[in-house]
Amino acid sequence: MFEWKREYETGIEIIDSQHKELFKIANRSYKLLKNDMVTDKYDRVVEIINELLDYCEYHFSTEEKFLIDIKYNKFISHKSQHEEFIKKLRSSNLNDIDDNQDEYLMDILNFFIKWISGHILSKDMDYVRFNNSIK
Ligand SMILES: [Fe+2]
Questions:
Q1: What are the boundaries of each domain within the chain?
Q2: Class for domain 11-134, per CATH?
Q3: How far does residue 3's CA lie from ligand 1's centre (Å)?
Q4: Where would I find the Hemerythrin-like domain in this sequence (predicted)?
Q5: Which residue of 60, 65, 102, 104 has the fewest CB atoms within a 10 Å radius of its CB?
């Protein structure tokens, strides 16, 4: 399971609730993947991972609107980080896996959570500081 930590909190309600939702969706996928009682689970796992990516894009657009609102001075580089991440994830062909499905899907989930938590702690916290400084 991917653990949500208090240090991920930005103090901005909508951002925090969307970040938490990303963890929730990733954990749904994780649990299903780890459940040996379920057969033929891969289509469902892929479906949830796609849902995760859709929600992530939705979250990025919310965040980018917020950054425009506060006139964030590093908006362009922040947005390009989002774009690169989505591009990378979208390029992994989830439906075209035969060997080591478990491992492949788990790698994607791990990559997702590692990137998003690192991004929150460094890049997102940077706009939080910016936002607090202009208040
Ligand atoms: Fe971000």
A1: 11-134
A2: mainly alpha
A3: 19
A4: 10-128
A5: 65
